[in-house]
Every structure is written in structure tokens, then in C-alpha cells.
Amino acid sequence: MLLSILAFTVMNAFVKYLQDLPPFEIVFFRALGTLILCLILLRARGISLVGDQVGWLIGRGIAGTISMLLFFMAVKEIPFGSAVSLRYLSPIFAGILAVTWLKERITAWQWMCFFLAFSGVLLLKGFDTRINLIGLSYILTSAFFSGVVYVLIRRIGLSKHPLVIITYFMGCATAIGGLLSLFNWQTPRTQDWWILVSLGVFGFFGQLFMTKAYQVATVGTVAPMKYLEAIFALLIGWIWFGETYGPGSLLGIALVIGGMLLNIFGTRRE
Known about the structure:
0% strand; 78% helix; globular
């Protein structure tokens, strides 16, 4: 899981570095690289993309693409560490959506955790003047669509191989990102090409290592480790981008992460 976290953190840091390029273009290159690697693996393992639930798979792909695009737009507007931390609000939206779509229930403990996390958002916005309303709206909407993704994956269930789900996602992202890039294409600088190519590679291995982690360890053990990405993002933001955080901002981030971790541990006990 640590390898997955590192891969995703480096990939997202590269996205922040490429902030002069249009976000649609970054989505296209990030998705295309992963799509190619997924198709190679699918062919090698003899896994077919044809079957049922295609509509749900495409829906998951579109929701994931919107979430990815908005996250890439957010890291251009607000500090890197803050963007990564706020994206972890997605379980709140997933829980609320699951009540409507999957007829699941939210316990009093979960509501308390959600309130704690949103308090962190308000604290972070109040203390960090670098977090503008545009960037905040991008990242919160990204977290919402990430929550939609979680619910759709639950709806799809275990009938589909993870590689199939990822391939549909990357296929949608490649198509949408590529189409929108045609209207606002900006030729990357020579030194940016290798970074663009690496986005798909880091994204693929991040997804692969995460899948492996969930296969060999319990969800309760692996899921909390995912929040280490926020810590790594804060460190990279400080070292690479010169981002600093005051006590109020750090407390806000801690409330967001703490609320989500308490939600995980509380759900495990139940």
C-alpha cells in the first residue's frame, strides 16, 4: 500500500508541476498511458471487456473522469497538500449517496465523523487565504464525484475484474480528455513530455499496488493507510513547491483526516 501511495503522490505532484498545461490535456495523457498498460494486461490474461453492466461501467468511467479533471483543476488553484487532504471528503458523499441509491443507512457515529471533517474544511478555508472559493468548489465537487464512483463500484459488485473497471474508466477519460483538448491544445515543452508520459505509468502502478494491497490484507488494515498520502502531499508541497501551513490550517487538515479515520474505525467496530 505504501508503494501505491507513493506512486499516486508523485503522479499528483507532477500534475501540480504541469499547471501551465490545460487540465483536459493532462487528463488525456494520464489516462492514455494507464489505458495502454491495462489493455496489455487484459490481453495477456485473456480477460474480456465485453459483457453485462456496460452502462454502469461507462457511468463509473464518466464520474471518475469528472472527479479527476476537477482535482487537476483544483491543484492549480490551491496548495497541493490542501487539495489532496480535502479530496478525502469523498466517503462523506459516498455515504449520503448510498442512503438514496443503495438503501444503506448512516449511523450517528458516521454523522459525527462527517461533521468533524466538514469543520476541518471550514477551519482550513478560514485560516488559509490561498484557498479561494473557485479552488474549494473544484475540490469539493471532485470529492462528490469520487463518492459517486464508490457507490457505482458497489453497484457493479464483484462480477467485474478490477482491470475491466479501470480500463473503462481510463477509456472514458482518454476519450473525454482527448476530445476537449482539441479545442484548447497547447504543445507541451520538450522537458514536459517525459512527465506527461510518466503520469500514466505512475497512475497504473498506483492502482495496481492498491489492488494488490486489498487482496492480501483486510480492508480495515489497508484503508487507513491511504490517508498517509495527505502527509506525503504536505511534505512534497513544502519541499518542492515551497508551501507552508500555519497552525490553524494544519488543525483543519487534521480534522478532515481524523474525521475520516474515525469513520473507518467506527464502521469496523460495528
